[in-house]
Design goal:
2 domains, Aminopeptidase i, Domain 2, 26% helix, Aminopeptidase, 9 helices
């Protein structure tokens, strides 16, 4: 069987270049706050301007963005914007499962300096053992200043040796209170001194902290086919959306002709019979005049998806709705015109899904399993754990057609509980057509996840297609 990710030449070079850039993005984004700022930095580099929420809203033609904590929103206003426009939204999330430091993280036991932590999200606990962990996040001072920080490798969660736990290979049980406390030094040590030094402030000025453990091991491309790295859920989607939006904006207004491309739905539903290669990738020069349709391209990267999204920066909060409403009002739309804009709008909610694991095939539906290297996925669930429906599916397939790339369908095994993501929350809050998509991963929610080099590149290309199709 031939993998789409095995292509050589220009196509393969583009995919590997995208994977290397994704690796750099992940390295720059140990936690959600850094991910939001890294995305903002990249958008600013192509001409987006920062919008402060306390200032009058700017809806002049061009790119704008705002950062609220670990969330990032960006929007591109076309020259021909008006009440007849719509919003084309891509949603993702910046946070990943891990450990959050308790307010007073200092602890000692039997001569070891330890770090008191809470579990954050549904992490695969055993994958965090024996890994070199750093600390990253933000601290605030009494005067309200916010300082981002990250340390190098600082601590480790030591696993009990097999000699002391002879049954470990038959079943490992980890108590989150007793067994998942990192060690970081010997004797009495003050972790706040290290944190303050990393933040560039004095320890006695720290008033509040939002600090997390992160795996310091760098991402690694394997066999030019896989990318192994932490935090791919869901920095893969954040990165793909930023790359797609920047690419569409850079080429905005360029004269070009759209080339029709071969398109196949379900190219990987049955891997044994579908080994066709995808069409050549689209580039800025291949597309019809990008963003010339009059719609507003919007990107929303929320925080706190892994813990329910019910925060000021989560998908259940008012952030995206505020951006849409203030943008419409800023160019003169009244309330009725705003709701008419919403009725024409759509959202592509991008989050990762489960690739079939060849060691555990029984966990997947035998006819709807995605496979690494076969392209992005569309996620469907009868109980609406995913927001995809027939309208959203046709929207996604048009974007795939615009990019000339295949997609896969993912439906859970009926006997295995289905997860959820920001799609249903966005659809419920805004009442717009929403489709849940993403790329397949192996080892999701572990400290080190595995993706396909081809898939992350293809996701960016299809998101670019969504933002640029007529």
């Amino acid at each position: 069987m031939e993998s789409f990710g095995d292509d050589q030449g220009v196509n393969g070079d583009a995919r590997l270049a995208h994977a290397r850039d994704l690796a750099e993005f992940i390295l720059a984004s140990p936690v959600s706050y850094h991910a939001a700022e890294e995305g903002a930095r990249r958008l600013a580099a192509v001409g987006f301007t920062r919008q402060e929420e306390t200032e009058p809203w700017d809806a002049t033609p061009g790119g704008h963005y705002l950062v609220r904590g670990g969330a990032l929103c960006a929007w591109w206003v076309p020259e021909q914007v008006g009440p007849g426009s719509a919003f084309r939204i891509v949603g993702a999330h910046t946070d990943s499962p891990g450990f959050k430091l308790k307010p007073n993280p200092n602890s000692t036991a039997y001569g070891f300096a330890q770090v008191d932590v809470e579990t954050y999200g549904g992490l695969l606990r055993n994958s965090w053992l024996n890994r070199e962990l750093g600390i990253a996040g933000r601290v605030t001072t009494l005067d309200g200043e916010v300082h981002l920080l990250r340390t190098d490798a600082l601590m480790v969660i030591p696993q009990l040796a097999i000699h002391l736990d002879r049954g470990a290979n038959d079943g490992l049980t980890l108590d989150p209170q007793r067994h998942l406390r990192p060690v970081w030094a010997l004797g009495q040590c003050d972790l706040f001194e290290v944190i303050a030094r990393a933040a560039g402030v004095e320890p006695d000025r720290i008033a509040g902290t939002d600090l997390y453990a992160y795996d310091t091991q760098a991402p690694q491309i394997i066999s030019n086919t896989f990318l192994a790295s932490g935090r791919q859920d869901n920095l893969v989607s954040v990165h793909a959306a930023v790359v797609a939006l920047c690419a569409a904006v850079i080429s905005a207004g360029a004269a070009a002709t759209h080339k029709k491309r071969r398109f196949r739905r379900g190219a990987a539903t049955n891997a044994a019979t579908n080994a066709q290669r995808p069409a050549q990738p689209t580039t800025g020069a291949d597309m019809a005049v990008p963003l010339a349709h009059g719609d507003i391209a919007v990107f929303a990267a929320f925080d706190h998806e892994e813990v329910g999204s019910a925060t000021t920066t989560g998908a259940s909060g008012p952030l995206l709705e505020a951006v849409l409403r203030r943008t419409a009002q800023a160019f003169g739309a009244d309330e009725d015109e705003y709701y008419r804009m919403l009725a024409r709008s759509s959202c592509v909610s991008s989050d990762v899904g489960h690739s079939i694991n060849p060691n555990y095939p029984e966990k997947h539906d035998p006819d709807h399993y995605p496979l690494l290297g076969r392209g992005p996925i569309i996620k469907v669930n009868a109980a609406q754990r995913y927001a995809s429906d027939a309208l959203g599916e046709s929207l996604w397939l048009r974007a795939c057609q615009a990019a000339g790339l295949p997609t896969q369908e993912f439906v859970s095994n009926n006997a295995v509980p289905c997860g959820s993501t920001i799609g249903p929350l966005t659809a419920t809050r805004l009442g717009i057509t929403t489709v849940d998509v993403g790329i397949p991963l192996l080892s999701m929610h572990s400290a080190r996840e595995i993706s396909g080099v081809y898939d992350s590149w293809a996701l960016a290309e299809i998101l670019k297609g969504y933002w640029t199709i007529a």
